[in-house]
Design a protein that fits this description.
mainly alpha, 2 helices, about 50% helix, CopG family transcriptional regulator
Length: about 70
């Protein structure tokens, strides 16, 4: 590592984009991942699509319980 770095030609905020949305990765436990991967293969869809569908169905159920 250098003792000094020259930032005189640097541009402040060059890589800053205020409208960027960060998507958090979600890590499944091995048993859940194995089950969902196999089910996604059987249905011919990508695992992220299947997981999102499952989560949406759970959200719908929670909303139904809350509204009753």
């Amino acid at each position: 590592m250098k003792a000094k770095y020259d930032f005189s030609q640097g541009e402040q905020g060059k890589f800053y984009h205020p409208d960027v949305v960060f998507e958090f990765p979600i890590y499944l436990e091995p048993d859940v991942n194995e089950f969902m991967t196999e089910l996604a293969k059987q249905q011919g869809v990508e695992i992220n699509i299947l997981v999102n569908e499952w989560l949406r169905s759970q959200i719908k159920k929670v909303d139904e319980v809350r509204s009753s």
